[in-house]
Amino acid sequence: MSLKQQQKLIQKLSPQQIQVLKLIQIPAIALEERIKEEIENNPALEEVGDSWDEDEESFKDSDEEENAYQEANENELDEATINDDYQKDDIDLSAYFEEDEYIPAYKLKANNYSNDDEERQIPFRDESNFYHLLYEQLHTQDLSEEEMLIGEYIIGSIDDNGYLKRDARSIAMDLSFYYNIAVSPEQVEKVISIIQSFDPPGIAARDLRECLLLQLRRIPEKNSSIQLAIRILDEYFEEFTKKHFDKIQRKLGITEEELKKALQVITKLNPKPGNSTSEGKGSQAIFPDFIVYNDDGKLQVVVNTKNIPELRINKYYQTLYETFRKQKKHHPQTQEVIQFIKQKLDAAKFFIDALKQRNDTLQTVIEAIVDYQKEFFLTGDESKIKPMILKDIAEKTNLDISTISRVASSKYVQTPYGTFLLKKLFSESLENTEGEEVSTIEVKSVLKKLIEEEDKKNPLTDEELVELLKQKGYPIARRTVAKYREQLGIPVARLRKEI
After folding, report:
1. How far is the first Cα of the chain from the last one, in angstroms, to the nearest whole number?
2. What CATH class has 429-496?
3. Which of 108, 243, 244, 391 could pair with 239 as two cysteines, CB 3.0-4.6 Å apart?
4. pLDDT per position as a tens digit, 95-129
């Protein structure tokens, strides 16, 4: 084995750079929690209060205690405890006591709101978790202790959508293994039937067909349309899911109008009964990371820091560090305390700097994006969105593509035309019949409009959509139409058919 010398040029990120990149990626809705976590872990970091006077008062007692501590230490320690190495390693405190950084502290809030602004909050529904509702209903039943235990286990096995994905035999085996209770699948099935009678209707179904049938059978007065809907789901569910309505109509010997009324009954049912009562479902608020204003044709862009606390370095820790440092004699344990305080002060300063750098980077990127997509932000017309990739903004801002990607990831922008994900504005380009580059977003918008305006009794196939797009100046292949349609969440023509 031979030894070799190699010279390599390696670029490594410092811990501070890594911290900045991580903060850039965090959306505003999660940043507040991240800041609170940092404050809890670092006593040298604190949130700015309403007044500095209150802070001054709170530190008076601490300063007096520290002076007494210093005098006691100087009387007790002798020259042998002085650490020469520490004296050589002098620490520059100017970073902590510069006038423009200390008073006021780092400003991390944008002054985008006046005193007249209305404080608006999104209301959340006060609702119980649907599992609790099921447990409450279970305990109102006249059941044996064994049946109650089976019922609780079944409810615990129901997923968030309200479905029971376990069969009776598997549940019986689990109860035997975990609770040493010998029950038969028939006993489990009996309790499942009881739970299926609970609210919301359709709960504890094993599949979609059973879920819809449970809801229909709970309707007290069943007219001819409801009875027909039950029969369709019971006997012709596969044909129903594939929208083979002509087969259903022929096999049942019914008219098109009768079939239409039965289908209307089915479409009003809830395919996910668990979501109708689960806590917080459908009530999550979107907190925009950026806000774009249209001021008489002039676009103004801000990073939304309304709920982000303003931070500063804790004054008591600064004073404590300076007091220790000025001592001529240091006990070894005191040196450890000094090093600990210095580390916390450094971490606090780095975190505040990282937040400031995050805001600056986000502001730079969003300004570049808004400038690039100016026509869209002025009009709100999606057809005005220009082809834009990460590289375009990276070149415009002189930032790395990975940084642009982090900024665009999971961030929302609020505009006069709605709030949406920032990454929505990034798209590839294709050339139209006139030789102009257009955004794929524009093509998707045209495709979506064509499908919305189609005859639902005879929906457009992908081949027909290709021809219509070509007529509008967008020559794209059928597989591309299929890809865009899937990205828009639009099913194939057969599944879009209505009667």
Report:
1. 80
2. mainly alpha
3. 244
4. 434 444 433 434 444 444 444 444 433 333 434 46
